[in-house]
Structure formats: C-alpha cells, structure tokens
Amino acid sequence: MTTAVIYRNLLVERKALSGVAFGVLEPFLYLLSLGVGVGKLVGSIPGLGDPTVTYAQYVGPALMAMAAMNGTLRITSEAVFLRLRFEKTYNVMLATPVRPRHIALAEITTAVGRGTVEGAGFLITMALLGAVHSPWAALDLPAAALVGFAFAGLGMVAATFMRDWPDFQALQLVLLPMFLFATTFYPLSVYPGPLQALVRCLPLYHGINLLREPALGQVGMGLIAPALYLLLVGAGGLWLAVWRIERVLED
C-alpha cells in the first residue's frame, strides 16, 4: 500500500517541476551573491588550515544541505497540510486498504527523494561555478538524502498541528534562525562557548558538517557522529509522524 501512495505522489510531482527548479535556484542565488560575491572580500576561512579553500567552496555544501532540507519540508509540511486539511486526499485513501501509516511512510519517502533531487541539482550547479574543492563531494548525494530524512518526519508532524496557512510563519521562525546560525556562513569557533553548545544541537548543523567535510576532502571517522545524529532524528521524526497522522485521520 505504501508503494501505491508513492506512485500517486510521483505522478503529482511530475507536474511540479517548477518547484524543484525553485528549490535549486534559491540556494544558487545565495551561492552567487554571498559565496562568489562576498567571498572575494573574505579571503581564506579562519580555522580550516587550508588557505586554498575559497569561501564559495566553504558555503556551497551548507547551501546544498539547505536545498535538501527545504525540498523535503515543502512536501512534508505544505503539501501534507494541503492534502490533509483542504483537499481531503487522505480521507479518500482511507476508503481503500491504505492505512495512515502507509500514508506517512509514502509521504516521507517521496519527500526524501525530492530533497535528494534538489540537492543533486545544486551540487551540479556548484561544480559548474567551481565551488567543489574535492571529488569526495560525490558523497554529498547520500548525505543530502540523510539530511532530508532527518527533516521529513519533523515537517509532517508540524503539518498535523497547523490550523491554517498563517501558522506556517511559526515554522519559518524556527527554520530561518537555524539556517543563519548553523555555521552556514562562518565556522562554529566564532560563537561564544554556551552558544556553540546550542548550535551543536541543531540538526542542520550536523547536516552541514556531513556535507561540508567530504566536499573539502576531509573524509574520516568524524563523519560517523553527524550521520548517526541525523539518522536518530529522522527515525524519531518518522515514529512521531506515523503516530500523529494515525491520530488525526482516525479521529
């Protein structure tokens, strides 16, 4: 049953290619204006120990993580909210053998695929702009999928609590500061100690590390911790999403 819902979602997504294009365009504009433009003024990045890394190469993987996160959240928050509250798509599905858990699993799987596609599109853009420092950046593709998985369930849980479209402003109030402070544009060392501890708790911070280190040629055991963190967040979000969607649809 999960496969049937995924197939239905893919048919819908096939007609929404403009959304995928926008998901790549937004971080591309950040990269072009900040990574390439401001990067000429920044020079080498303190604390990296490699003066050959440009600012665009430093910022690029973080923006790719953002593309994967945003691509996932657009489905598991906005699209799920629309189908749940207005289109009543899920109520129709429940008249078939499809159960709420199948819906949750299918939406999350589709969202992770969308986030990975947008991340891949941005990686190609980075390569065309010369913002790829190491061939190890190819590992950013599975890393982008893991970033998407970490945010997919959380987005779906948020959608089940939304009452109307203005409620999404609350979600943006969480996402925007996380995007700005999760070492997207500068290293963690610029923050004071207590704030560093807070930043280390952000899932996007670990997502950025998981993409940035391979992109800069730093492949080693240090990638295990952020990968496990994102995996645990994704698993917890998946469990909560299944529980919430079952509760909402069966009430």
- Please bin the fraction of helical residues: over 70%
| Low-confidence regions | none
Following the backbone from N to C, one meets helices and strands in this order, namely HHHHHHHHHH
Find the structural class using helix and strand composition: mainly alpha
Strand content: under 5%
Q: What's the domain count?
A: 1
Number of strands: 0
Computed over alpha carbons, the radius of gyration is: 19 Å
Mean pLDDT: 84
Global morphology: elongated
- Number of alpha- plus pi-helical segments: 10
Taking the alpha carbons of the first and last residues, their distance comes to: 21 Å
Oligomer: single chain
**Largest sheet data:** none
Question: Could you walk me through the main structural features you see in this protein, from its secondary elements to its overall organization?
Answer:
This protein has one domain (2-250). Helix content is 75%, strand content 0%. The chain has helices spanning 2-13, 17-42, 55-86, 89-93, 100-128, 140-161, 168-181, 193-199, 203-215, 224-250. The chain is elongated and about 60 Å long.
Fold blueprint:
Blueprint: H1 2-13, H2 17-42, H3 55-86, H4 89-93, H5 100-128, H6 140-161, H7 168-181, H8 193-199, H9 203-215, H10 224-250
Helix pairs in contact: 1-5, 2-3, 2-5, 3-5, 3-6, 3-9, 5-6, 5-10, 6-9, 6-10, 9-10
Key terms for this structure?
mainly alpha; 10 helices; 75% helix
Concise synopsis of the structure shown:
By secondary structure, the protein is mainly α. Helix content is 75%, strand content 0%.
